[in-house]
Amino acid sequence: MTQKSYRLQEIAEALGASLRGDPDILITGLATLQAAVPGQISFLANPSYAKYLKDTRASAVIVSSAAADEVPTNVLLLDNPYLGYAHLSHWFDPAPKASPGIHPTAVVDESASIPESASIGPHVVIEAGVCIGERVAVGAGGFIGARARIGDDSVLRPRVTLAHDVIVGMRCHILSGAVIGSDGFGFANEKGVWHRIAQLGAVVLGDDVEVGANTTIDRGALDDTTIGNGVKLDNLIQIAHNVQIGDHSAMAAKVGIAGSTRIGNHCVFGGASGVAGHLEIADQVHLTGMTLVTGDIRESGVYSSGTSADTNRQWRKNVVRFRQLDALARRIKELEKKLEG
Q1: Smallest Cα–Cα separation from 163: which of 176, 178, 146, 149?
Q2: I need a labelling partner for 187 at 20 to 30 A (CA). Which of 27, 110, 215, 218 fits?
Q3: What is the tally of structural domains in the chain?
Q4: Alpha carbon of residue 289 to chain centroid
């Protein structure tokens, strides 16, 4: 593979950064402050890593103005160094690019619409009525169900499953093992026997959505499950049927959202947090890791639940005290009444 290289001035102009130093130095890669060698560029986004600045061997560092004077090498000044790193990471991405065309082992229904610019990998199955946009890439072993639609420039990594009637917007990125449009968990109980309910809705993903590896998004029971524009979902997330997630929300690994819950815009859910069904979550709600939500959240802000790890002996004592809270609260109320009297 040919090594890519860029003049530092070229990088500065692309990022909209101010350059302090040699504009002609060649940059051949990205690295952390600790691991960088000459020819590589690094960045400082977290102040706790500032201690590595003075010893870095990077040829350039992306920093904010507050830390610029501490850098012993060339500097690119940006208000948001982490965003600069994010943009620059694509310049050095070694992932192979898919070539346009349909692999001979793919099974494609003759009624499917696939432009010449799309890439369909080995052993992909595409059913009747599917519509695929320009420059879409479907990785090896993928399955695209009947009448599904995929917007321009979206990428489906190997072994992604899109069930029938699923709609994927433009520039979406779906990682391996994700299942979009599986049946929701819907059953009716009659005298202890469960009867399956057909799931009649679909799943609609907006533009610029990212879905992590082995994440599942269930189709709606009647209405569609909807994922807004710019939503980012990590690996191993479960989104149940009829959930609605607002634009530009993000969820870390192992989050679980129960059915028919509506989540606002710009929400951030920490890892392994869970939300019960049929709830309303306001815009700009941040759940810290392992938070359990059992009621509506109607105001933006940071929410937490659970307790931190402790020694087992201390934890058992605290559990006993927790069970006594209701009785203690009643006793306090009684004492307050006596004091008021």
Answers
A1: 146
A2: 215
A3: 3
A4: 15
Where is 269: in which H helix or E strand?
A: strand 268-269
pTM of the predicted protein model: 0.91
Distance (Å, whole) CA 61 – CA 77: 9
15: domain CATH number is 3.40.1390.10
Residues 88 and 111 in one domain: no
**Per-residue model confidence (pLDDT) at position 3:** 78
**Beta strands 125-126 and 143-144, pairing class:** parallel
Residue with tokens 């059992």: 294
Measure the CA–CA gap between 60 and 71, rounded to whole angstroms: 9
Question: Out of 103, 173, 241, 286, which one is annotated catalytic?
Answer: 241
- Which residues, at least 6 apart from 90, have a Cβ–Cβ distance to it below 8 Å? none
Is the Cβ–Cβ distance between 229 and 206 less than 8 Å? yes
Is 180 found in the same domain as 272? yes
pLDDT score for 2:
67
The residue type at 325? L
**Is 328 within the bounds of a domain?**
yes
60 is in which domain, residue-wise? Answer: 6-92
Pair 94, 112: CB distance under 8 Å: no
- Angstrom CA distances, 167 to 51, 176, 235, stand at 47, 18, 20
Residue 241 is a catalytic residue: yes
pLDDT computed for residue 306 by the predictor: 81
The pLDDT of residue 309? 85
pLDDT of residue 1: 57
Calpha distance 123→25 (Å, rounded)? 45
Residue 308 lies in a domain: no
Q: Give the single-character DSSP code of 295.
A: S
Is 173 strand, coil or helix?
A: strand
Helices (H), 41-131: 81-89
Task: Point out which residues pair with 302 in neighbouring strands.
Answer: 286
